[in-house]
Amino acid sequence: MESNLTPSTARDGAASPWLEKLGPGLITGAADDDPSGIATYSQAGAAFGFDILWTILLTYPLMVAIQIISARIGRVSGHGLATNLRRHYPVSLLYGTVLLLLVANTINIAADLSAMGAAVNLVVGGPARLYTVGLAVLSLGLQVFIPYKAYVRVLKWLTLALFAYVGVVFAVKIPWATVAIRSVLPHLSWSSIYLTTVVAMFGTTISPYLFFWQASEEVEDLRADARQHALKKAPWQAAVNLRRIGSDTRIGMAFSNVIAFFIILTTAATLHAHNVTDIQTSAQAASALKPIAGQFAFLLFSLGIVGTGLLALPVLAGSAAYAMAGAFRWKNSLELDPRLAKRFYAIIVLATVVGLAFGFTSIDPIKALFWSAVINGVTAVPIMVLMMKMAVREDVMGKFIVSGSLRLVGWLATGVMGIAVAGMFILMLV
Questions:
Q1: What phi and psi, each to the nearest 5 degrees, are found at residue 41?
Q2: I need a labelling partner for 175 at 20 to 30 A (CA). Which of 22, 64, 94, 167 fits?
Q3: What's this model's pTM, rounded to 2 decimal places?
Q4: Are 257 and 251 in contact (CB under 8 A)?
Q5: Is 1.20.1740.10 the CATH number for 20-429?
Q6: DSSP code, position 1
Q7: Which stretches in the chain have pLDDT values below 50?
Q8: What angle (nearest 5°) sits at the alpha carbon of residue 201, between those of residues 62 and 131?
Q9: CA nearest to 257, candidates 68, 107, 87, 55
Q10: CB of 222 within 8 A of CB of 78?
Q11: CB 48 within 8 A of CB 197
């Protein structure tokens, strides 16, 4: 094995087209705008108009920093977050974190599947629950039966679904001068509902499943290319790969935030402007757009929900599976035949099936999604603290420990998320 680690591989990938270098960061960023996220952004835009847009600008550098750090941990160490947590921290802490992640992801899957089925029903009519089941089966089939190299191309193409929300803006009238001013100089409110929405925005954009997914996909990319190795063992590959991680993540998170910005912009300019301020789901937002913005905007918004859901489901189920596999030392890879990684694929199937079944119960999906956000927030803070600590440990990162502005902004993101979670609990008690 060691004989293959030669500096000649340092140039591998350097001549590849830049678009081919986009992968984990792009997919992670796009998956952040899942149907549940779309519902949150729609609620925010409808309720507060342009005065909530500032949160998108603020979260961008924080998202970039924490996702680059998670990607670096995976690429440098050659292991996902769960495996690194198991190697360097008490297992009780790991098991608690993974359990919370699994619960939160399953609830998110339930909400996303329900939203996708409702969106198809809005467009073509028919039984929403049947569409929900069909979409769940389609997503599982893609994850289980298509090898990683081919599947990652499917996911990249699915990111194009998010452009539907850019297209919607061209179907409505936008006061761009007002948007520019209110994005940087908003009319802030200290009401409970406004602060709750701000907390929800942070919880939606900075989520634990994204950390686990991006780190694990860096490991998947290592496995998919025999010329590539963990940077601790092949430091001559660092320059190319660290640059790629930086550009991939910045573009992916920019993509995520631009789309979120456009969703808020659309609902602010249409629903909020027409005093439609109480939106509970992404499908409800699409339905409310129809009489205000027209059929074209309605169709784009609805179809975008389906496309983003198909992109987000494998990230939610996959991140839970990677976390469980890393915690319990199971074989794990989307490149492996399911028969060789039965327990890993079983978690993907279980999370999706339980999420599907959850959507058929009498439990209020909005309340379930709220508690999912609470769990995500509670889980995110300790994971971010542990990630920041791992990022400066030589036994994890070798000579590639995180330093300088990246380290500073990473801790800033952790602090902001901690304040957001504390604020969430205070608001729950008031």
A1: -65, -40
A2: 64
A3: 0.87
A4: no
A5: yes
A6: -
A7: 1-4, 8-16
A8: 120
A9: 55
A10: yes
A11: yes
Residues 314, 156: Cα–Cα separation, whole Å: 12
SS (H, E, C) 299-312: HHHHHHHHHHHHHH
Which of 214, 276, 272 shows the shortest CA–CA distance to 245?
214
CB 72 within 8 A of CB 402: yes
Q: 20 in helix, strand or coil?
A: helix
**Position 219: which residue type?**
V
Domain ranges of the chain: 20-429
CA distance 307 to 110: 16
Q: Give the three-state DSSP class for 22.
A: coil
Structural contact between residues 76 and 231, judged by C-beta atoms closer than 8 angstroms: yes
Query: Is residue 287 packed enough to be buried (19+ CB in 10 Å), middle (13-18) or exposed (0-12)?
Result: middle
- Token pair in block for residue 206: 């900075």
Residue whose tokens read 């680059």: 68
pLDDT score recorded for residue 3: 41
Residues, the chain: 430
User: Is the distance from CB of 248 to CB of 416 less than 8 angstroms?
Assistant: no
